[in-house]
Amino acid sequence: MTTVAEPKTARGRERKSAIITTAATLMYERGVRATALDDVLDYSDSGKSQFYHYFSSKDDLVAAVLEYQLMTVLGELRGFRLDTWSGIRAWFDALLEGQEQREFRGCPVGSLAVELSACGPDMQRRVADAFSRWESALARGLASMKARRALDRSARPEALAEATLAAIQGGYVLSTAHHGVGPMRTALDTAYSRLRASRPRE
Amino acid sequence: MTTVAEPKTARGRERKSAIITTAATLMYERGVRATALDDVLDYSDSGKSQFYHYFSSKDDLVAAVLEYQLMTVLGELRGFRLDTWSGIRAWFDALLEGQEQREFRGCPVGSLAVELSACGPDMQRRVADAFSRWESALARGLASMKARRALDRSARPEALAEATLAAIQGGYVLSTAHHGVGPMRTALDTAYSRLRASRPRE
DNA sequence: AGCTTATTGTACCCTTCAGTACACTACTTG
DNA sequence: CAAGTAGTGTACTGAAGGGTACAATAAGCT
Hints:
elongated; 0% strand; Tetracycline Repressor, domain 2
């Protein structure tokens, strides 16, 4: 059978997830296209047969990696109260910290997004969806701030979230290019003060 | 001889530049890695021998394409007075227009940058350099505005330029992902109002 | 013309890599 | 234990793609 199957045992699940996390790392470091399946299998101590047991193709794996990276990002997000100023600031600081630790390699989701934007419509949908979910998480926090009057009534949480996410992505791009956090810090500081500018005026 | 040579005749120059522009288009549409040399040669009606006459490798071509795309961007930039509010706004609008016309494919320089960030240090330097030149062009405009008091004395043109470029890049990323100008418009509108917020307070 | 340099055509080599075939082991359940 | 299902090892195929070899043609230049 060449049909794909979900893992049915604990061992199977571990295998599959080992493949995904290994692929995520390699694709993050080298890019999707520059990552050979064989490398993923070597690093995760798997074989071709195991791979095609759980995935139908490389694209299938890429989709899984995208989902995995989004989950990682959203998971980290949950560690912060995005409905408070200090929470948002702390999140920004954590993003900076993370970017530094990962040696300025860029956004795990964003760099995938850019490379996959030239792929088929199916992949494009997934990418768009990923950003939407990220943006919503932020928008929810801002909406909640607005509800309790921490943001001005004229403030538009969705637009603010969109602009903030853009600043984050742009910060990642420049920070990666210049191999330093400087540009990202500038971008995030600016984004933060832009948010603060939406506090209610008395 | 396998050594590279600069074209010495008009025909040679045309050939070389045809290869570069064709490669630029294909790499922009498909990505660098997804663009085969053979495709570039087919589309530009050239042969392998011609290619390796003018370029030492694919990487060499990629570097030329990066430079070409940067020149295109900076060339467009020169059509606007970046030391006036209306000029900046017009430039932003032109970026939006361009992104729409090119079917939301992203920034010609930025998408290269992201994909090439995983390449060798030489390429990284070129990418960083490209963004620096872009940023400087903008910073010069803002510095000139500050000099004639169109910006507050506390404004930092370099930081503003950096944050603006980040907003542009982030806008491109989200706009490409969502296949629409919406996110980019939001990012640029926000960036613009951020700049306007640096006007001198009386 | 004759010599030199610039440009071009074509066939080829070799590696990488996604995907397949097929046989094998290991666990589980009756 | 037998049988079935989940998981695994390995060798192979075929195409794509970067790069080379080498000879041929075109365009000066004296």
